[in-house]
Amino acid sequence: MTAATRSYDFIGFGDEVPGILAIISAAREYRRRIGTYPKSVVMLRGNAQDGVGGHLVRGRLAYLDRSSVPIATRRSYYLEDFGDPPAIYREFLQRAGVGKVALDPGNANMTLREMMGEAGIDILSHAKVASVVKQGDKITGLQLARGETFLGKQFIDSTVNGELAQMAGIKKLPGYASLGLPRSELSVTLVFEIEGLSPQTLKNLELAYLRRFTNLADTEAQQWMNVASGGDASLAQYLRNTLTRAYGQLNTMDVGTDYIDVYSRAFPIAYHAFRGLKHYLPESKVVFDNPNIAVLPGNRMFWNGLLFFVDAAQAEILARNGAKPTAEMLKEMTYVERWLKGHGATSVKAAPELYIRHAGNIVGAVQPLSGAQMVAGGVSSSQALGTFGYHFDTRGGILGLWERATDVGVKKFAFKAPLLNIGMRHTFLKDISNLAVISPASGFTGSASAVGRIVEFNVAVGQGVGIAAAIALLNNRKLSDITNEEVHNILVETGRLPKIYGKYDGSETSSMGDFEKRMYDVSLAVPVDFDWVTV
After folding, report:
1. Most buried residue among 20, 205, 301, 408 by CB atoms closer than 10 A?
2. The domain 1-186+362-535: what is its CATH number?
């Protein structure tokens, strides 16, 4: 008996939220034009029974990073707190019941399934691709390890490591090779959910720690500080500096409607003292960071703050293996559970998957996107698919960044948050005309992935890519030839274009451009082939 062959119009590889919403956008645009939905499928390595929605669902990253827009800009354009998000993202958040930033993973899973069901999109679990079938500059199908072949016309890769693109022969720069640091990578997080503690209880607990750690006469607390700093006086001073604000005020947490922002290192100091571990990621390989906490009804709290050190090779391996936490990570969670239960938590549960922030970037994008282009305001207003603001967030740090900056004579490598108009052509590939990579692995160079890895940004990109994929399919064109302007005009025509308010910062553009140029070392930025046979 021959293995089954299935044919689809749109195939999404990976089930991260931007990729799913991109496929939904493609299906909706297709239907808008011809009246019926296309055949579409979203494939994922994991089990859809555990939820669809990638790291926001199975990784339990319930605290959403939203667009950051200066208050003056918000007032000038009559914007909400987070600016004007892409239409499909606004719809997703509303349907999932997000108040401000807290996304219930269960609600997200149900909402995505509903939206996919409405658009006739299939879901395929345990999709391990054995080979990619190509004809000329196009992918024509994916042959799965279990023997089935899925034929497709347009493909969207939303995996954190650009897995489908790699299997199709696209090279990838490991880590931060475009900054001369090919082995260095951002930390990964194991999010955990706790119950039994209220926001007020946490606030009181933090306040007690703050008072003790700032009291130099409290010998026990100062001994804890010494343990957390590993006896390093400069690290101890850094930790102390986080405990107070201006005029010596204690740096207490901010408890919002559905979130808690923790600014001080009081909890981290206490945890690291409990563990007997230095609060230094490259050395200890784990840091209990000051967390972002999403608060859901019933005082369910999801903590994003347990960071693990990985290099570029480790990040790639984790991504290929379904983002499953290692035995060492799960062992650390036993200490987290013991510590939090000692403070009154009744339940502490780790997410089934890791939040992998970044795992390299594809080479050969039609229009690569750099940090300098971001602080220059992104694409023009006539091309824009939306506007997004965010800081260059390298949580956990990039190992060797300061040393390399010093070596190449960079005098500045901390930059203001850009407010940029969003395009999509950094997701398209020169060598494969019907594939887009919508993820932290897109065609970012330099510092750009620190902003471009955020979900809200990629959803805006994905909405545009979905529309472009429908145009390409129905007009027999190459996806890689579809322009930002074409999609921009459709968003205008259909009343879905958000307000556009990107900002050019000349000084920051010049500084960032100099930084990225100096940091780049062509001899280190060597595209790599990963051995897929061992996966």
Report:
1. 20
2. 3.50.50.60
